[in-house]
Amino acid sequence: MLPYVGSLQIPMTFFIIALFGVTFFLFIMVSGLVYFRLVYHSHLSGQTVPSLWVEIGPIGMAMSTLYTMLHLRKSGEGISFDLGWWSYVFPIGSFTSGTYALEKLTGSNFFAVASTVQLSILWICFIIVIWNTSSGIINGKLLKSRIPLSETRHLSLINK
């Protein structure tokens, strides 16, 4: 059970289990859509690959890693930076906090070293993403409008 919750211990436990249930079924639905797309359609572009990393879990991480490697190989198209790169930070942070919790729970030196290595990787990823996001906003390349000018004029006439 959950420590330090007091009289809300049982309701909080049921609430957490309910949230897990909701997110589990959403995970199954999104996974089905993603893998259907990977099997029956052409492969995703390098720009959309980072969004696969949001799908956390053993199968999602193995598939995301393989898809990333597909685009990073010499014959691949590469992965250009966009805001989807923030998707790399989330799963690494989740695994890092989980490993850190295992180290605190077990007192194992293995988990202490693993969580330190993962935290270093997380910080490196975070610095890369925040640097590219900041420079992309400053130089104006990241937040460009993707609506053609003709459609923008049409939208402004509708709003008048």
From TrEMBL:
UniProt KW Membrane keyword: yes
GO cellular component, one term: plasma membrane
Membrane topology, as annotated: Multi-pass membrane protein
Gene3D superfamilies: Voltage-dependent anion channel (1.50.10.150)
Gene Ontology MF terms: sulfite transmembrane transporter activity
Matching InterPro entries: SLAC1/Mae1/Ssu1/TehA, Sulfite_efflux_TDT, Voltage-dep_anion_channel_sf
One Pfam family this sequence matches: SLAC1
Record field: transmembrane: 12-40, 52-72, 84-102, 109-131
Keyword set includes Membrane: yes
Location within or outside the cell: Cell membrane
Keywords, alphabetical: Cell membrane, Membrane, Transmembrane, Transmembrane helix, Transport
Family: Belongs to the tellurite-resistance/dicarboxylate transporter (TDT) family.
Name of the protein in its database record: C4-dicarboxylate transporter/malic acid transport protein
Organism: Desulfosporosinus metallidurans
